[in-house]
Amino acid sequence: MNAPLRVSPGPAPPGLLTVMKGQCGDCNTGGLCLSTGLDSGSKMRFDRLVGQHRRIAAGDTLYRTGQPLRSLYALRCGFFKIRRPGPAGDQITGFPMAGELLGLEAVGTGIHQSDAIALEDSIVCELPFAALERLFEDIPGLHRRFYRLMSCEINREQHLMLLLGHMRAEQRMATFLADMGAAYAARGYSPAQFQLRMSREDIGSYLGLTIESISRLLGRFTKLGLITVDKRAVVLTDPQRIAEMASGFSPCSPMV
């Protein structure tokens, strides 16, 4: 029997304090966070490391390009976009969701290379980086988990380079939708029914396409019976075909 359908979560509830303190045991990010797999004693030490839980209002910036790295941020709930400056202008390079770690791009240089902007009211757990490095020495499992997350970040950036460098427009859109569905599924939500928290302009920046192309692609996917769209609510009505288009096994129709 199929599991009950869960639709994608909404914004963090209103009325939360800007600064608060909680425990990892209260978190619902499941097996996605940095503390995943630690024994109870190690998890308690990690919990004490968390400086504070901060609410970031929609549109506010958590950190900016050029700021020194002082903390990493585990996204407890909500949605962000990562904006990176470049020679041709700013580009969106990611859309972190609950359970992901923000600020990893600054670990090598000690300086943030991008802006992290909340797409909806969000809550992050602040992890002072100097204290986190000291904890790595005492908890090897935490250090290994951190390396795995760094590896995932490298793979994600390589995936984006492949997306922009070698895929046609329809394949980029199919890949984006399939990736979004997989990300929601990893958090216990429906892989075929979710909200696009970002604007079409942001999607275009991420995929290397104009906002007009994004609108045409969504319209074309709708006509092909692949999706239905209601404002920012998306239903993948033919996820198998979308996955085939993303992988290149299903031919993409020329744009008109």
Automatic annotation (TrEMBL):
Q: Which residues form the HTH crp-type domain?
A: 167-240
Q: Which GO terms describe its molecular function?
A: DNA binding; DNA-binding transcription factor activity
This protein's superkingdom?
Answer: Bacteria
Q: Does the keyword Lyase apply?
A: no
A Pfam family (short name) is cNMP_binding
- CC per GO annotation: cytosol
Q: What keywords would UniProt list here?
A: DNA-binding, Transcription, Transcription regulation
Protein's UniProt name: CRP/FNR family transcriptional regulator
